[in-house]
Amino acid sequence: MPTLRVADSPAALPRDAWNRLLAASPRPTPFMRHEYLQALHDSGSATAETGWQPMFLSLWDEDRLLAACPAYLKGHSYGEYVFDWAWADAYRRHGLAYYPKLLVAVPFTPVPGSRLLAVDDAARALLAQALRALAKDSSASSLHVLFGDAQDQAALAQAGCMARHGVQFHWTADGDADFPAFLARLQRDKRKKIQQEQRRVREAGVQFEAREGAAITTDDWDFFHRCYQQTYREHHSTPYLSRDFFARMAADMPEHWAMFTALQGGERIAASLIALDPARRAAFGRYWGAVEHIPNLHFDACYYQPLAWCIEHGYQRFEGGAQGEHKMARGLMPTPTASSHWLAHPAFAEAVNEFLAREGDAMAGYLGELNEHAPYKAKDAASAASS
User: Fold this and answer.
1) Where are the domains of the chain?
2) The pTM is what?
3) Coil vs helix vs strand at 182
């Protein structure tokens, strides 16, 4: 009979066994690697002290790992990108506690992918059921599994969870030989806008350097983190990720990163960082920052430089991150996402289920409307929408 275990640190789970489950999952990403989750914990970025109490759930057949997921007991909703603040406020107005809640997610990382790692569908189903039991045993108001894959969603629906739908903006390759060929497929006004933005950046004397993997030096990481902190300061917020986290990424997962540094007069003024999945030829826009303000620099550093790099290196997908209709004008198309939710309170569960049904209908209409305004020429729009 399989047994369940709850761990207060990723370190309690065997790295190699976890990563084997991930590699065999329907939609693996670098962010679900054991090294990534361990770095979040060991760097102090995602710990009980920051409101992310690890409760990693695993299923075992003696010493064989059958299934596992990164679960956290949370006292807030920061760093998630599937917004439930209104639900928490409704609980508060009715004199009920919404927190703690049980969350299955990669902290601060709204990248769709497998969340319930399992050797087969049966183990995944047992893990989904165990998550509901863990939520009850932890006196959590609810269970939330964010940005899971289709198999995760099916197992969680069978376990009584409700589905919530969202949208992100992703680029997929269409045989472009280079960045100018990609631009040529865009509608004239979109193409001209990008060319104008890049020209203004060049007229400001800005050039870019791209480095990947071990070629990214400690000095590069130091400058990038300075830029990253500056972005949060400008938004009167506190960075989620510490410098130590990025040091661990450089040491443990160097092959999964590329950095674009903007220079003006030979001096560094901005940097953007993307994550890489070399095996699946996928890239993920993550972080950026600047120490000097240059109009349009953000678009060049975060979209045009990474897209040009992806095309040059034969990457097939670039995910631009959460939210942002403006990404469509840069060639990124709307892509559905989903999360799964269970609420212990019957009346609130019913109310949320009704809300999600209405929200789902609205989201379907929104996606249809977005696809009608694809940035590509008519002959390319259909293939881009279906990618």
Assistant:
1) 3-168+335-371, 174-315
2) 0.95
3) helix
